[in-house]
Design brief:
By secondary structure, the protein is α+β, with helices and mostly antiparallel strands. It is 41% helix and 21% strand. The record marks 24 as: Substrate discrimination.
């Protein structure tokens, strides 16, 4: 293979997904190889080992039956020689910046999606060699200069590149072309298609769709009846089709905000909550598009007499998710202003922004699995809205509690409604 066209048709894109393997454990092994290299290790974020949950574990530990999400006590029973390591997020940020700096040398089109993974669009990087040569160079440099392993997927789009990087771990490179999808993916269960979670997989089973191939060959009308526009997305994804672009952050934003002047004054709690939820959704969507996380929040209100008030606070942990921002916004609003007073304008501004690649968030370990399910769902919702428009997916909380309103909006917009309960303001 000598050039890009050996991988894809003319004018196609070439995307790499670079994924660090057992990142936290690998970093500790690189820092203190005499203690951790080649040993069964696990990083657990709780000071109480009895209740702590394993955030990640080395491949040596995985070979002894240890898995992510396992309670520490359970892990120690399974593997008594397991070494439990306390997280060092400053160290992880250091290594994250280092491996992304290496990747950035081969293309400015770099999108960091978390502290340990990123997408690269190398379509215009032919001067560095073939896609395989570029991937091998990046992998080898990360290993030699930083001492940590990574796997890389090469594909014509982000969806397939992500799936390819999971195929050979650790330290592997996988090419996944569109023409390979049927052979390499269609025999796999639907839950292995990136973006499909456990609940969606269960719903697919109920309509007798078990594999990615069966999903690819399902009637689109049937999928839309059951899943709305998500059904169309799933069918396209099962064929390996995705038009999501690599979105580099060109200039760091100091803040991202949105205000809305209300068509009529509002004062009751339900209306205020609904507006704050909508604004939270809009600002966090822009935040994710830029690959940023917010460490601070500011709310703005204006009363009918044109008096404007602004309040701000720092967040306990960086976030890019609308429910986190909504919870903080409502808490700040009701602490500072209370309910029952008429409002003309509401706004939310997120500040103290940092690249997501640098925001080593210490997870709430009791909600560990939910965190990753939430990120997967958010990714799919963003993809759907990128393709079908902002109204393609709305939550019930954004539309209100009147069932007739929900049904009317569903029929008029063809909207997929995700049922939820608005969290109560604290």
């Amino acid at each position: 293979m000598n050039n890009v066209n050996d991988y894809y048709p003319a004018n196609g894109r070439v995307i790499l997904h670079v994924d660090m393997n057992a990142f936290y454990c690998s970093v500790h092994a690189a820092e203190e190889p005499n203690i951790y290299a080649g040993k069964p290790t696990a990083v657990a974020g709780s000071s109480e080992q009895r209740k702590g949950v394993i955030v990640t574990c080395s491949y040596e530990a995985r070979g002894r039956g240890i898995s992510t999400g396992m309670v520490v006590n359970q892990g120690l029973r399974q593997c008594p020689e397991l070494m439990i390591i306390k997280p060092d997020f400053n160290l992880y940020r250091k290594y994250s910046k280092a491996f992304m700096s290496i990747a950035y040398e081969y293309t400015p089109q770099l999108e960091a999606t978390s502290i340990d993974e990123c997408y690269l669009d190398i379509t215009g990087s032919k001067q560095f060699g073939t896609p395989m040569e570029i991937a091998e160079t990046i992998k080898n440099r990360i290993n030699e200069e930083l001492g940590i392993p990574c796997s890389i997927g090469i594909a014509p789009n982000k969806l397939l590149a992500k799936m390819a990087s999971d195929m050979k771990k650790p330290n592997g490179i996988t090419v996944l072309r569109l023409r390979d999808v049927q052979k390499k993916l269609w025999h796999r269960p639907c839950g292995e298609l990136f973006g499909i979670g456990r609940k969606t997989e269960e719903k697919l089973r109920k309509i007798n769709i078990h594999t990615i191939g069966e999903l690819a060959n399902a009637e689109e009308g049937l999928l839309r009846d059951y899943f709305g526009v998500l059904g169309t997305w799933m069918k396209q994804a099962a064929h390996g089709i995705s038009d999501s672009e690599v979105s580099p952050v060109r200039e760091p934003n100091k803040s991202i905000g949105h205000t809305t002047t209300l068509p009529e004054d509002i004062s009751n709690e339900a209306d205020i909550n609904r507006v704050l939820l909508n604004i939270s959704d809009q600002v966090t969507r822009r935040l994710r598009r830029h690959g940023m996380m917010a460490e601070g929040i500011q709310i703005t209100i204006r009363t009918p007499d044109m008096k404007t008030m602004i309040r701000s606070q720092m967040l306990h942990t960086p976030t890019d998710h609308e429910q986190d921002i909504y919870k903080e916004a409502t808490s700040l609003f009701y602490r500072q202003f209370g309910a029952g007073k008429p409002l003309r304008l509401l706004g939310i501004t997120l500040h103290s922004l940092i690249p997501k690649s640098e925001s080593a968030v210490q997870l709430d370990l009791f909600d560990y699995e939910q965190q990753f399910k939430r990120e997967s769902l958010t990714h799919v919702m963003d993809e759907l809205r990128n393709k079908f428009g902002e109204n393609a997916v709305l939550t019930a909380g954004m539309l209100g509690n009147d069932p007739s309103v929900l049904i009317r909006n569903y029929k008029e917009r063809g909207t997929s409604l995700q049922k939820d309960n608005l969290p109560r303001p604290e």
